[in-house]
Amino acid sequence: MSKQPERIFIKGNEAIARGALAARCKCFFGYPITPQNDIPEFMSSEIIKAGGDFVQAESEVAAANMLLGAGAAGIRAMTSSSSPGMSLKQEAISYMAGSEIPAVIVNMNRGGPGLGDIGPAQGDYYQSTRGGGHGDYRHFTFGPGTVQEAYDLTIRAFDIAFEHRTPVLILGDAILGQMKEPITPWVPEGVDDEAGRDWAITGRTNARETAREKRLIKSLFLGEGELAGQNRHLQAKYDAWTDMAECEQFETEDAELIICAYGSIGRIAKSTVRAFRKQGKKVGLFRPITLYPFPSADLKKLAQAGKRFLTIEHNLGQMVDDVRLAIRTVADSDFFPIYPGNLPTPDELEAPILACLEGK
Amino acid sequence: MTEMQEKLVFSRPESVIDRPTHYCPGCHHGIAHRLVGELLDEMNLAENSLLVASIGCSVFLYNYLDVDAVEAPHGRAPAVATGVKRARPDNFVFTYQGDGDLASIGMAEIMHAANRGEKICVVFVNNTVYGMTGGQMAPTTLIGQKTTTTPAGRCITHEGAPIRMAEIIASLGGVAYAARGSLDSVKNISAAKKHLRKAFDCQLNATGFGFVELLSGCPTNWKMTPVQANERLQNEMIPYFPLGVFKDISEEGGIC
Amino acid sequence: MSRIEVREDRCKGCLLCTTVCPVDIIVQSDRFNVSGYKVVEVPEELKAKCTGCASCAMICPDIAITVYKTPRKKGGK
Fold first, then answer.
1. Which residues constitute the domain of residue A155?
2. Mean pLDDT in chain A?
3. What ipTM goes with this model?
């Protein structure tokens, strides 16, 4: 009687959109920018069919602020963009972090700085993991490496956003967004559409409540000691996320050299690791799935086991800082940059890994 | 016997919280707050209202009105209100913005929210200066008006001309109601309240976007007494910013 | 007799009310409130002239004025 689970063959962008709908996302605020256009295009009809609402905003600034409004109203909502647009969204993201508004934001990273190109890149790692706007804040950041993972993590992003009252970022890139893969879609059970009932602005009275005190969602704290208190509160929240860090470890147990890579590059590096293993070379892969919180503890364990490290990124060296911080008392990491504007193949990663393996 | 016939004819509306405001003496924000509060009471909206506060002197409106509120970044209140209204279409959603916030940094957001015909109301207080930051030139600053960033007076060839927002908003397709009132006199305050009521009605009837500009005094940054500021409003502002209704389709059944 | 009550702790002494009173009975007093503003008042000898029109309350930015109106009896003095 067991029914074969449904398999669909879709792009990463569409997987994220479908994942959001499965997670009962009710509002989507979009703005065109390559390479994420499939997401707003899909949502413009599908979220309406699902009983939600879609707005093509006048700018990324406005889209992110619409998201702020919908999140403050306690509704599952989302926006998506790519690097230049993400710079514009940072204003609202900082306000959302400061006023603890849940939201899901997607960045399909393209080449930069400036207008850059429309190809894949990982140049937004710092922006994504350090709090890309003004002020001292962080937000949860996922770095999916496959289309299935993009779907799965989008669903989880909504849960985390509401559980922790925080913006959650899904950081993909042009490869993930445009690549088609078969996935198994699933629908989470027990999603609470009114998860914000205890804090969201809903009106002092609504169908579910009797009259209550007014609510205020804000990030302005002018009173003596208030802002310090708010920052302390936020920091405690971020600290508590440490245990939620996730990674994929592939062939790390007996490896001499660990490749640290995330997202699409993590996936490409996995193919290279497989090729080396066929040759009997002891190479493994450490792929962070959460970029913030960074899976430092797992990485440190590998360092304590005497491993060596090579970080490979599609940028000039950003995540490597987190790798080095994680292992700083016991080991170091080499770094190999892939410049934006190029699309690396697994073969192209062989030379730098081999050089590192042979201690060159 | 006469005592028994005495009737309370004017008191604080319930929606306005009983606390002193931070505004300077003679600032008209307090009047605008009260008009909004009276309408929330009279139209029975307070418990269903969601306020989107803006940045400027009026940021603390959320401390004065007894409604749920969210604070928007500078100029973005119409975008935030769009998100709030799309998320909770059954609530009454309004923004309250000053002229620096709405007509300068927030020009894109106000134009597009209006043009989309968002079912929200915008209360726009125009006092021709950035108030909270200390009286710098605003997009509405009059020609020749001295501010801390136009010490010689605003010059049309260098700073351009003051923007008439009510007229611009009235020209956009999604707008159901656009009007300009003034808070300088009892007669104009009564008219301003009527404008606000119409704009609020446009949201309740889902007719479209409602916009009311309120000309206001800023004695501190104009470096005048409140009474002088009122005279300036009447003699200089109203001639440039004419009062009246610039668009009203509320009787026509709205925009699809 | 109609009358107004000025809530002195809220009055900021802007004097806008004095400009709109149709019977000119509101004046600045000699008293300062806790915030240091010189508050308005209706002198005792002018109180009887209040019409209860509420103009002063309408223009008061601080909702410091409450108005009570007593309808005049027809034919009364």
1. 8-183
2. 96
3. 0.96
